[in-house]
Amino acid sequence: MKGIVFLGNRQCAVKEVPTPEPGNGEVRIQMKVSGICGSDLHVYRPPEPRDWVQGHESSGVVEKLGLNVTNLKVGDRVTVHHHQGCGQCYYCSLGDFVWCPDDKVVSGAFGEYVVANERNCVVLPDQIDFIDGPFFACVGTTAYAALRRLGVEQYFPQTIAVYGLGPVGLSTVRIAKSMGTRVIGVDVMEERIEVAKRCGADATVNAATEDPVEAVVAFSGTEGVDYVVETSGSTGGRSSIIPSLRREGKAALVGVGSDDKVINPGDMVYRRITLMGSVVFPIGWLKDFVRYCAQTGLTFAPAVTHHFRVDDGVEALRIADEARCGKVVFDWD
Ligand SMILES: [Zn+2]
Ligand SMILES: [Zn+2]
Questions:
Q1: Residues with a beta carbon under 5 angstroms from ion ligand 1
Q2: How many Cβ atoms sit within 10 Å of the Cβ of residue 277?
Q3: Among residues 104, 243, 296, 300, which is most buried (max CB within 10 A)?
Q4: Quick one: 296 and 273 in the same domain?
Q5: What is the pLDDT of residues 95-104, one digit of tens each?
Q6: Are 121 and 147 members of one domain?
Q7: Which domain holds residue 256?
Q8: What burial letters (b/e) apply to 101-138, b meaning 16+ CB within 10 Å?
Q9: 151 and 246 part of one domain
Q10: What is the pTM (predicted TM-score) of this model?
């Protein structure tokens, strides 16, 4: 089969590689749509080569069963939680595979076939399109988890500022809108701001040309927004969080990157601000989120700006790395 391997220093190659065989408790999935994630780029940019097929955002059809697979059958349409876990330890028992001491990322989504443990697979209902599979596997459910941890509810008119409009930020815009909140999106790339508008953002700000905090506070109609989801991981994004919030406002920090210490805990006290970190999601939340999208009809298709075939993998990675785009996906049909 064909797959994309990373050669280091922003180089990659489309190679002929052996088709993986499913082991005990594993299934082989034929890809239908797979996504390029920001965390793939953290592996693509450094000098170290990675001599195995990359990509961790899969959706496809179960095509072969290994031994002792009990809950899946050939032909099932699935998405795959991108952290494997050991299945045995305390954190795996919570479904929080990301904290398993023996965790590794389920790799291979830039190849035609992915082997995954059946505990990582979640069946997609018929009304869910494969285009949404990569979002469930990683970025979309990451956005859902941030909103769920913040306790965003539908009972009260609420405002959210999303800092960073890459795939996680765009997913946050989609979900927050479907929950009935008013959303303002902030980025420094005009192309991403345009995608956020298509994704339903009520307002947008280009922080390269406008003061984002001023715009966010004006948008709130009061002294600040109820929630911030920070997905950029940048110094500018993080230092805007607290002044963007109203009193008793809450923020989730999702993006990684900057090491600058830009948050002063003293600024939180009198305004009773809550800040929380949010990383990935337990597998049960992925199942809840698939059900939520099936019931509401929410789709992430408006966040996808580029479709590629695996043969054009070099160009696909270049486009994603440039960050002037929404979600970049590979189509396999
Ligand atoms: Zn990802
Ligand atoms: Zn474990």
A1: 37, 39, 138
A2: 10
A3: 300
A4: no
A5: 999 999 999 9
A6: no
A7: 142-277
A8: eebebbbbbbbbbbbbbbbbbbebeeebbbbbbbbbbb
A9: yes
A10: 0.96
